[in-house]
Amino acid sequence: MTLHDYESRVFGLAFLALMAVGSLLMALRVGVAAEREYCRAREQAGVWTAWRAAARTAQHFHRYEYELKDVVVPKLNFISTAVHHLYTGYLIATGRRVIPADTAAKVVVRGPDDFLYYLNGFAKNPQDEAALFSAVHSLAQKRGVPMLQVVIPTKQLNEKAVVGNFIDLACDENYAAFLHDTARYGVPRVNCAAIFRGLGVPRESLFYRTDHHWTPYGALNAVHATLTLLRQTSVSGWHPADFSVSDDFVWAESAADMMGVQGLRLGRYWSVLDREIYGAPRHSPNYRLELWRANGAVSAECGDFASVISHCDRSNYRASFFSGSDYPKISLVNDSVPDGAVLVIQDSFGRSFSGYLSLFVQQMIILDPRFYQLKDMLAVAAAHEFDAILYVRSEFTLGMIGTQRDSLQP
């Protein structure tokens, strides 16, 4: 265990102890107050009307419950946020601001209007990411097909002016470096950050309050920008009937509230529920879907957009996307589109994106590199025919600033 890991665990245990003591003291306060109210009411009402005393006690207990929920909990939440900020500042001041991967996933801060943000934006392993990009780029060159980079901005990057300096802005540096490198190596890319800024819509239309993934509305706009580049670079037509955000989709909120990954990691009692955006085409094509699971099992199904693509994953999401965190490989065929086969390299950040992209291409092969050794993933990719490669990653995971960034040849 490194010194930093040890400090992180000590900090976590101390914080939990502080919260436990605060909760215990509040419970004792409520209990003592309720007992006093009951005794006072019973003395005033007499033995034979003790039920009235109990009712009065319940009324006062409700007042203390209100105080606990609306006064004490927000104060504790403010304290926890301040402690997180101080700890992050300590890491930066001591030159150890890179939080280990197992800790980074748990470091969440509340921003304005109950939006939640991760405190850091570092790639877990820049060297591996650089090697992955280099290998996929080489595969595209060998096949003679275009490779297109779709850089997904995370909520930290998109909202850095709102959140302030407490968020680690290395994600901003990663994003700028990767845009520079893709231009240097001649890889066309879609700059989704610029697209999002140009939409002029509220941020809750692009990102969930309690989750770090973008919404289907933001994903569909990124797909339209991607198709523009694909039509310029690919030998295929990429010209099916256009789906527009305003006319060809029905946008609605899900019937049930959800709690995103960040909300779950921060704690249900310290967060708010999210209302999930759902978008489905008015006229859906029929799909043929095959899913390869991590245990080697393969399942197949057929159906329309709502039944095949917009399904609930293990986190109970239903937001027009494939579950990018469950399947090493996905094969999807849309028979209503005459041509276009694309290989998509993505993790969970691209799942809304690939769901909507399926409306415009005949076939998609989606590979999640988190499930593969690099050589094994390349072997799977080489077994398929495709007209283009999409490399869909966020600046949260991009690693072109690693030691292997010069392994590509412009």
UniProtKB/TrEMBL annotation:
GO terms for cellular component: periplasmic space. Pathway: Glycan biosynthesis; alginate biosynthesis. GO terms for biological process: alginic acid biosynthetic process. The keyword Transferase applies. Its main location: periplasm. Keywords: Alginate biosynthesis, Periplasm, Signal, Transferase. Pfam families: ALGX. One of its GO terms (molecular function) is transferase activity. InterPro entries: ALGX/ALGJ_SGNH-like. Residues 108-245 form the AlgX/AlgJ SGNH hydrolase-like domain. It is found in: Periplasm. This is AlgX/AlgJ SGNH hydrolase-like domain-containing protein.
